[in-house]
Here is the input.
Amino acid sequence: SASLARAFETINQSRKAVLMISGENILKDVAYLTETIGVRLAGTSQEKEAAQYLQKRFLEYVPECEIETLM
Here is the structure.
């Protein structure tokens, strides 16, 4: 059935995400956030850039990822 196929797809995507996560990738992301983007105070362009960077990275692991704006 369609719901079973979606369930298997979700499981496969989760497995892919777990396999792609590594200490090396995490260190690269932290280095980019801290050394390239730098300080990310609320409401600044650096905060937005960091959010967009992380969204891009998450989308490599999962099919959906949205940036939420806090008011």
